[in-house]
């Protein structure tokens, strides 16, 4: 097996579902990211990680990989990947901020694994890809979409709020695999009605809001491009390119299925152009539905709005405007500072334990086993999620899905969908 170049076996590659080889590569990626985040721009010459058990090892010595009562293995120095931070152009002083602002309430491993899977477990490519994504997030100020209200964003980007008011795109319910469903009504799009940057910011808004609705163990979303009434006047090639780039480079492994629904004849000429831009992995997730009945193969009828034939959910999208005072907690600097400090304290512990986990082999210097260290990492990841959602309303503006009599997004980070059947 070439270093850093293994394929994901069925049912593995996600948090808690790694093969021994995949775990080694995840450790290597963590080692390099933390090395850079600690202010090092030079190459990490070796990464001391615990090696996977050799094939055919004594099966009588069970008890988990490295830990507990199993056969002990020794930490080895794995040759480092060659990531040129200078070529990427990211400021290493901002890397740790970009990392944790991107993790939010997820298990920290989840983010790194998305980029590893996207690059077929090649660590060099995975680290390079994630650093480029962090650079984009910093340069395009992705935090602005999270920290400003829709009214503030609309004042800066002409037509931002219009996207929501007209219902061009919204999230509602889950599909048969528990993935949140993003509906895009293509016929409502007219390229000249908003500044291109406003559309980009709205797209990022939907991406970031959608991430909050992806509930573990689900890791991806379902997109429905409703092509009903589509004409060439609705076509926006620049936006399509931006959306493709988002899924391929900035939010990899976030797309579960992309449904192109009721595409008219005129669309097929457009599709021949778009298809050439797609990465094969993204292209493989596209499904065409010719009628509403086929849509119920992806989304349960009880979750599907009844505007679609066969849908039973009496749901009609309506935009709920910004509520006066909904972000007043931003002004409570004392509480915000305290909660931020609590969250940061846990993430520093998580990083410290992760460094210990990277190097453990059987037993480490403190006598702790792999299993014991992994149990602490999991506990800290759970604490991080709780701490993040405590501070969230003090640093993140409330959005459409926090509002109304039956809000979708709950204070603890869970999502509750209401269906009217």
Automatic annotation (TrEMBL):
CDD domains: SEC14 (cd00170). This is CRAL-TRIO domain-containing protein. InterPro entries: CRAL-TRIO_dom, CRAL-TRIO_dom_sf, CRAL/TRIO_N_dom, CRAL/TRIO_N_dom_sf, PITP/CRAL-TRIO. Pfam families: CRAL_TRIO, CRAL_TRIO_N. Residues 171-316 form the CRAL-TRIO domain.
